[in-house]
């Protein structure tokens, strides 16, 4: 597995090196094209032809380096898959061994009792949480002045161009008023 990882590193390094060489050839091709223009401007067609041949050669080399880089990258991907699969297989073997040991030592009665106790505690927690939320909501309702709430609702309704009494259902306004009145009593 370690040897494959080393090969993977070397393959990735080679692919990057080939990419670098391809880019280098692209730059040299552009430089040769600039030299072609200068030679033509000076009227020196023989030198321009030599630079044109060099530019074409650099372009072909860039393409070849890129092609080789892609091939090496494909091989690296296959090696990466093999390395990963090796690691996964090794991990799965360990999991299977530990599952075997767990299954042999499992006591279903103890697990069932533990799950029952967990469910009971969870239900108790739900009840306590509900009581705390109810208490908090009652406290919040009592500490907020109702007339300020009504004024804010009316202001927002006016901005929206709505009639507040028509938008709120009749039962909702009564229940709010009743809960506040009963809380104050």
Q: Which stretches are low in confidence, meaning pLDDT under 50 for 5 or more residues running? A: 166-183
Shape: flat
Total strands: the figure is 0
Order of helices and strands: HHHHHH
Supply the helix-strand structural class: mainly alpha
InterPro entries: Snf7_fam
GO biological process, one term: vacuolar transport
Protein name: CHM1B protein
Family: Belongs to the SNF7 family.
Describe what you observe in this structure.
The chain is an all-alpha fold. The chain has two domains: 1-103; 107-134. Helices cover 93% and strands 0% of the residues. Helix 1 runs antiparallel to helix 2 (45-105). The longest helix has 61 residues, at 45-105. It is flat and about 95 Å long.
Could you outline the blueprint of secondary structure elements for this entry?
Blueprint: H1 2-42, H2 45-105, H3 108-143, H4 146-160, H5 164-167, H6 170-184
In short:
The protein has six helices and no strands.
Keywords:
185 residues, 2 domains
């Amino acid at each position: 597995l370690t040897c494959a990882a080393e090969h993977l590193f070397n393959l990735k390094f080679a692919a990057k090196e080939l990419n670098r060489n391809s880019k280098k050839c692209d730059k040299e091709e552009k430089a040769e094209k600039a030299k072609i223009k200068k030679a033509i401007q000076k009227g020196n067609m023989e030198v321009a032809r030599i630079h044109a041949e060099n530019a074409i050669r650099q372009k072909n080399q860039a393409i070849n380096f890129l092609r080789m880089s892609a091939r090496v990258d494909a091989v690296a991907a296959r090696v990466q898959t093999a390395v990963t699969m090796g690691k996964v297989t090794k991990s799965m073997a360990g999991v299977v061994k530990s599952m075997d040991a767990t299954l042999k030592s499992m006591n279903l009665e103890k697990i069932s009792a533990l799950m029952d106790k967990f469910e009971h505690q969870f239900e108790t927690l739900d009840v306590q949480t509900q009581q705390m939320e109810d208490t908090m909501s009652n406290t919040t309702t009592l500490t907020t002045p109702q007339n300020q709430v009504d004024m804010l609702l009316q202001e927002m309704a006016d901005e929206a161009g709505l009639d507040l009494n028509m938008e709120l259902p009749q039962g909702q306004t009564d229940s709010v008023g009743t809960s506040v009145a009963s809380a104050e009593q």
